[in-house]
Amino acid sequence: MRKEGFTLLQTLLSLFIGGLVCVIVFQQLLTLSIGQQAASDTNMTATGSRQELDTLADHLRSADSCTNSAAGVLNSVVDAATATSLTYYGDSACTKVRYFLTNGTLSRTDNGVTTIVARNVSSLSFTYYKAATYNSPWTTTTLPNAPTAAELPYVCGVLIDVTTTYNGVATRMQTTVRMRNAPKKISLDGL
């Protein structure tokens, strides 16, 4: 006589195999979710970093040459420069605009008002380039991250290297800026 149904051993084995399949599927979904979050964090960091870097580059590109030696460095776009700080002139009246890194925050000071440009900055580096005349080739300054006072009027380009970190994901961005008004054009042909 044959009885219909499952034995206890068959039932337990089925539950064990079903549970194992569920654990594997759950693990795969969890891994997929973590991967998507990492990709999202990377995109968010890259977008934010790029916008901040573009803003800084646009402002620096439009810097003006100082025409008053009492207010700044005569015929220079740059007032002061270090590896993590840059002060340039926002207009020909020598109004100073400063970008600087403090405790992971990139800030901008203009007319005495300091605003935060970017947070979570893990590194910032400015490399300075000079040219003898407006259309001549560039070379790095004597100290690439800190031009001398004599080199300031000839600083015409800056390489900006920024690394930001968001949720443990670091994004590095670089751009080179050619300052439109440096060095001062001596004649109409730019030489």
Summarize, please:
The strands form two sheets. This protein has a five-stranded antiparallel sheet, with helices on one face. It has a four-stranded antiparallel sheet with strand order 7-6-8-9, covered by helices on one side.
Count the E strands.
9
Helix content: 25-40%
Report the uncertain regions: none
Rg over C-alpha atoms, rounded to the nearest angstrom: 29 Å
User: Beta-sheet strand percentage?
Assistant: 25-35%
Number of domains: 1
Major sheet attributes: 5 strands, antiparallel
Widest beta sheet: strand line-up: 1-2-3-4-5
Shape: rod-shaped
Number of helices: 1
Distance between the termini: 110 Å
Work out the oligomeric state of the chains in this entry: single chain
Tags for this model:
191 residues, alpha+beta, five-stranded antiparallel sheet, four-stranded antiparallel sheet, rod-shaped
Commentary on this structure:
This protein is α+β, with helices and mostly antiparallel strands and 191 residues long. It has one domain (37-178). It has one helix and nine strands, in the order H-E-E-E-E-E-E-E-E-E. It has a five-stranded antiparallel sheet, covered by helices on one side. The chain has a four-stranded antiparallel sheet with strand order 7-6-8-9, with helices on one face. Strand 2 (85-89) and strand 3 (96-102) form a beta hairpin. The protein is rod-shaped and about 110 Å long. It starts with 7 loop residues before the first helix and ends in a 13-residue tail after the last strand. The mean pLDDT is 85.
List the helices and strands and how they pair.
Elements lengths: L7 H54 L16 E4 L3 E5 L6 E7 L2 E6 L2 E6 L2 E10 L8 E2 L14 E12 L2 E10 L13
Antiparallel strand pairs: 1-2, 2-3, 3-4, 4-5, 6-7, 6-8, 8-9
